[in-house]
Amino acid sequence: MQRCCGKITSHLWLWSTLLFLTLCFAPVMLHPQCLDFKPPFRPQKELEFCIMYKEFGCCDYQKDQELMSKYYQIMDNFDYSGYTSCAGFIFDLLCQECSPYAAHLFDAEDPSTPVRTIPGLCSEYCFQFWNKCSFTIPFLSGDPYIANFRENQTSLCHYLEIHDKDYCYPYLLNNQQLTQNLGGIQVNSDGCLQLCLEEVANGLQNPLAMVHANDGTHRFFVAEQVGLVWTYLPDRSKLERPFLNITQAVLTSSWEGDERGFLGLAFHPKYKYNGKLYVYYSVEVGFDERIRISEFHVSANDMNEVDHTSERVILEIDEPASNHNGGQLLFADDGYLYIFTGDGGMAGDPFGKYGNAQNKSALLGKVLRIDVDDNQRGPLYRIPPDNPFIHEQGARPEVYAYGVRNMWRCSVDRGDPWTKDGKGRIFCGDVGQNKFEEIDIIEKGRNYGWRAKEGFSCYDKKLCANSSLDDVLPVYAYPHRMGKSVTGGYVYRGCEYPNLNGIYIFGDFMSGRLMSLQEDKKTGNWKYNEICMGMGLTCAFPGLINNYHQYIISFAEDESGELYFMSTAIPSATSPSGVVYKVIDPSRRAPPRQCHYDPLPVRVKSNLIKFVPQESDFYNMIWSILFHDLPLALVATGTSKTTKNSRRKGRHRKNKSKLERAPHIQTGAVRLVGDSRSDRGRVEIYINGEWGTVCDDLWTLVNARVICRQLGFQHALKAAKNSEFGEGKDLRILLDDVKCVGTESSLLDCRHAGVGTHNCAHYEDAGVICDSYSISHSNKK
Fold first, then answer.
1. Between residues 147 and 264, which one has the greater pLDDT?
2. Sign of torsion, CA 490 495 501 507?
3. What are 770's strand-pairing partners?
4. 695 and which of 206, 539, 675, 760 could share a cystine (Cβ 3.0–4.6 Å)?
């Protein structure tokens, strides 16, 4: 590899130079952004001066009043003639600070250039302004360059204008591409919602729960599968000592995909006063595996540490297998503790005549509801008097709902901030067996169908035909070509991003898809939209990123209702690759000061670890800009890297380029196609004179690393599945069941089913997303 680094570096240097020139001289699609580098908003109080932006823009009432005051201060310097000639120009120029595209008009998008004092103008408008009102320029700007050019119309307007007429003032106002759906969530041509992320925490070992204590401190607590819970302060610094450490008791392993471990955490609704919290974890008792629900108290000496001697075991349930362990704990609006158990494991719920899930005398495959208040003396929990099966012979009184396979992550809807519509609903993702994943809304006494049904379809045909099943259907189900392990999420009810209000956001652990549902209030149906990371300039805000690790483990909301999710690059309880991301809508924010809160003070006795993001938002922004809409893909052998044109997404070009016909392409070479950026795409491999695709069976991040390293990148960010980058239908599937250890130089060196041998279809074409910072870039340093 060392011998070819110079060649690779020279190629990349040439690409970078050409792309930089392209960026400098080609127009770039804009995104709404204010001068504070944040999205525009709808003012709380109607503007009185810059009323053209009263519905949506970058000024609140206070800023509007400041601009009005500045306007009158300027106009006081002119006589009646100057007033009548120039009032409109002065008004227009001042109010562009309120434009949704203020950052663009004032050059605030580019951190390497000073912010303009006069917005970027179209040439015709600038000439009119100079002819009538050049004498007003000293009152508008103290820029010495503008002062030098003031007497020369051509030089001044050359300095002030934005040369692309679609993006300068005032023509920008008539650009339908920019003004349509302004203020709404950005959606691409495939109907995919364009959102961004902010990294909040990293270096975590399979973070599978993030909760807050609802005590006014706005701390959040992140639980790791190994049995550690960490405290994070509102500034995202982490306490060096864990909040809870039960690693010695928790049963788990380092095997990828092990479902046992610390699985759930919930704070009592009155935690602020009683200091009680509840945990759900796997234990081994003798030769038996169990799930255990325990109560702990916070330490009387440290508000950031649990009293480990206070544990009281509330409930233990035998687990007949090591999978399908459930794991969700939550307190609903009724104040009771809800426990979500799995069906006991294996496949098809084979326990007993009808399985655990349909057996109301078993606690597995259920939603349980218990009362843990006032349990200092007497029983550790009581049965709520309105539990649905309390009087049914043979049924466990704890059962609230049944027919559950393995609900992974549930949440309580806070309700619409204004109307409280939807408040108290419990949403769950229930992991499927062979075909479907589903989202359910939990209701008292209802049967959720498993094992009779999986999603909307029959699984056990005999049970499914039973007229007494009386099951409730999911609100949404999706097939396994989209993902194979649902991770339930939350209905967004936060303050910061009003467009997201009422949207249920969830994901899939295996495929890494982010998805959303929104209810049609008239029909009661739920509309599905996939969520894509914003491309191009969409996420070009300070601190924002547009990529994440594939394995989506869990979702969360903080004390103020903002939404987060946790994912990891390697699904192992001991891999420190877990990251917490905050979900961001880059198209609209709440008005300034509307979402302000003052956290209660936290007495800290531990050292603090300052948060340092792993992702470089600025670098990713520049890379995304450079490669957005540029039809580059990489072809790599073991020794070199070249480019080819692959503009057509997911389609093989009949007219092959000279590069593709070239006889020197070696067997084992790979290329990425199906995306305009060079660091990601569908994997195609060259074997024995033909290009073909790779099936995603057994496709892991380790396999992706082999590809990315072969292409000259340092890391792999995602092993993409389910033809995320389109189907290579015109090609043969050449490899299936690929299993790499990570040291191989190409996929052919990995274990596989044999060239041309496969048991899959093109909807399972594999892809990768590589770290856009290449090996050759690091070699240049």
1. 264
2. negative
3. 716
4. 760
**Does residue 590 register a pLDDT over 90?**
yes
Q: What does the pLDDT average to over 210-215? A: 98
The total of other beta-carbon atoms located within 10 Å of residue 416's CB is 14
Phi, psi for 445 (deg, rounded to 5): 80, 5
Q: How many CB atoms lie within 10 A of CB 80?
A: 7
User: pLDDT tens digits for 111-142?
Assistant: 667 889 999 999 999 999 999 999 999 999 99
Question: CA 182 to CA 190: how far, in whole Å?
Answer: 18
**Helix or strand (DSSP H, E) at 71:** helix 61-75
First-to-last CA distance in the chain? 17
Q: Which residue has the tokens 């399908």?
A: 324
Q: Give residue 558's pLDDT band: very low, low, confident or very high (50, 70, 90).
A: very high
DSSP H helical segments within 96-122, as ranges? Answer: 102-105
Residue 274 dihedral angles phi and psi, to the nearest 5°: -110, -10
- What is the DSSP code (8-state) at residue 604? -
What letter does residue 146 receive in the DSSP assignment? H
If phi > 0 it is left, if psi is from -120 to 50 it is alpha, else beta; for residue 685 that is beta
Helix (H, G, I), strand (E, B) or coil at 526: strand
Task: Give tens-digit pLDDT for 595-631.
Answer: 999 999 999 999 999 999 987 654 344 444 444 433 3
**Residue 309, exposed/middle/buried by CB under 10 A (0-12, 13-18, 19+)?**
exposed
Which whole-number Å values give the CA distances from 287 to 254, 284, 320, in the listed order?
20, 7, 11
Q: Report the distance separating Cα 341 and Cα 540, nearest Å.
A: 42
Q: Cβ atoms within 10 A of the Cβ of 378, count?
A: 8
The structural domains of the chain, ordered by start, are 51-173 (no CATH), 669-770 (3.10.250.10)
* 643-657 CB burial, b ≥16 within 10 A, e <16: bbebeeebebeeeee
What are 315's strand-pairing partners? 293
Rg (CA), the chain: 29
What are 638-679's pLDDT values in tens digits?
A: 433 333 332 222 323 333 333 333 345 788 999 999 887 788
What is the model's pLDDT at position 110? Answer: 65
Phi then psi for residue 98, to 5 deg, are -95, -5
CB neighbours (10 Å) of residue 132? 14
User: Which residues, in sequence order, are bridge partners of residue 209?
Assistant: 223
Q: Measuring CA to CA, how many Å separate 616 from each of 198, 549, 702, 771?
A: 11, 15, 23, 11
DSSP 534: P
How far apart, in whole angstroms, are the C-alpha atoms of residue 292 and residue 249? Answer: 10
Percent above pLDDT 70 for the chain: 88
Helix axes 5-25, 617-627, angle to 10 degrees: 80
**Residue 11: what pLDDT?**
38
Cα distance between residue 518 and residue 525, in whole Å: 8
pLDDT at 35 over 50: yes
d(CA 495, CA 480): 34
SS3 244: strand
Looking at residue 186, the DSSP 8-state letter turns out to be P
Q: Report pLDDT for 636.
A: 52
Give the whole-angstrom CA distance, residue 231 versus residue 233. Answer: 7
> Cβ contacts of residue 465 below 8 Å, gap of 6+?
458
Helix (H, G, I), strand (E, B) or coil at 342: coil
Q: How many residues does the chain have?
A: 781
**Distance separating alpha carbons of residues 781 and 776, to the nearest angstrom:** 9
Angle, nearest 10°, between helix axes 153-160 and 123-133?
130
